[in-house]
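Bumping with the actual sequence this time:
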Amino acid sequence: MIRFYHNPRCSKSRAALNLLQQQDAELEIIDYLKTPPSAAELEQILTLLAIEPRALMRRKEPEYQALHLDDVTLERKHLINAMVQHPRLIERPIALNATQAVLGRPPEAVLSLLTPK
């Protein structure tokens, strides 16, 4: 089962989803703007991606500037909570299975989840 955090308005997200569907992948599709991931889910995603919260954030979104998220003194918890409260900040798409996660940039990256490590 692949959990796919999707924004239907994003061309990269649509392309990644299409690639997985062409492979008949078993999918749980989550429109993350309507159903944002919890702080715990974001922690899991960050752990699987092996990245820090800012690496998962869309820095050009107005919320990033308005919330002063470029402040290097902000703690991890604060950055994660900002993504929970403002899901537009989350880079997309994100696909994960039980053991690994990938950002779908480029969209073909999601195909790596079909061959578990």
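The tokens above came from a reply further down the thread. The chain has four helices and four strands.
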